[in-house]
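Researcher: We plan to redesign the surface later, but first we want a full-length starting point. Tokens attached.
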């Protein structure tokens, strides 16, 4: 696939405030964070306590409607035990990646109870609620939250979550960050990125199937393999391309590539968790539906937990 033009910006020139405002003005609310996410938290009261850890404050941006209606929530094991290992689960860092959000909620509602006396859970089901409602990868400032988990970040989605973990001294042994790779990566988000940053976008590969991204600084090969074994019982694993790569990155093992998480500002790099992974579900495959994608995310979590219990 060749470079695509984008409706905003001038070729060879990075976006300024005018282009970012133009982009923001085009974004529309398409679904309800309150109805599809927040309302479900009430069903978790037996196993989890819900904590509000901040608000996304975008009210000074005139084209963002009801900006202060984006409270951020953590669900945390109600019977917290300091003697147990802690597992952090994050969804919706990229708000448009639906199964990550709904997979986190589904695990909490239907599966967490089976592990309640073995782990403490901290779950942030929707890190980017504005992105969830507008089906966006970026936040209203045209910033990618999943490149923003570092000290001094200007992305509220990242800084508020990092502050919560630091303030509450949450030190997980495992962090699972739930994501998707979609066809809109090519039709919208990669062209927008190329235009915003005035760069050539060289990778247009979208794997047909599920894959994982490990942290190259601590890849935990057996951990990743155990997750793949769990997920392939639910959905198909993406095959490597003709260059033995997925999305331009060399395959490290079946269904797994690696990124250096912390320098890239990735969510999975924000803690010192011994075990970490980023999932990538492909919801646009002809072989899956919405429910299958949600269950693939659940299979990631249960596969990871079962591996940790087997150590």
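Model: Full-length starting sequence:
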């Amino acid at each position: 696939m060749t470079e695509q033009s984008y409706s905003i910006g001038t070729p060879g020139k990075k976006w300024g405030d005018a282009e970012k405002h133009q982009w923001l003005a085009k974004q529309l609310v398409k679904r309800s964070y309150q109805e599809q996410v927040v309302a479900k938290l009430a069903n978790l009261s037996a196993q989890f306590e819900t904590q509000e850890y901040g608000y996304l404050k975008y009210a000074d941006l005139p084209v963002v409607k009801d900006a202060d209606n984006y409270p951020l929530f953590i669900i945390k094991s109600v019977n917290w035990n300091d003697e147990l290992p802690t597992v952090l689960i994050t969804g919706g860092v990229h708000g448009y990646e639906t199964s990550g959000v709904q997979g986190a909620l589904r695990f909490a509602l239907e599966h967490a109870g089976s592990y309640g006396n073995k782990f403490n859970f901290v779950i942030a089901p929707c890190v980017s609620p504005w992105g969830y409602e507008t089906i966006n990868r970026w936040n209203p400032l045209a910033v990618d939250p999943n490149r923003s988990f570092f000290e001094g970040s200007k992305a509220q989605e990242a800084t508020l979550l990092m502050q919560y973990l630091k303030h509450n001294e949450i030190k997980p042994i495992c962090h699972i960050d739930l994501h998707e790779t979609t066809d809109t990566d090519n039709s919208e988000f990669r062209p927008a990125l190329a235009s915003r940053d005035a760069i050539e976008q060289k990778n247009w590969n979208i794997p047909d199937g599920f894959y994982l991204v490990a942290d190259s600084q601590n890849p935990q090969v057996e951990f990743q393999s155990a997750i793949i074994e769990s997920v392939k019982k639910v959905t198909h694993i993406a095959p490597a391309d003709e260059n033995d790569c997925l999305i331009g990155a060399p395959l490290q093992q079946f269904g797994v590539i690696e990124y250096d998480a912390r320098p890239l500002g990735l969510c999975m790099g924000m803690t010192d968790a011994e075990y970490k992974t980023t999932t990538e579900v492909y919801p646009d495959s002809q072989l899956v539906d919405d429910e299958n994608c949600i269950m693939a995310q659940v299979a990631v979590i249960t596969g990871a937990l079962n591996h940790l219990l087997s150590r």
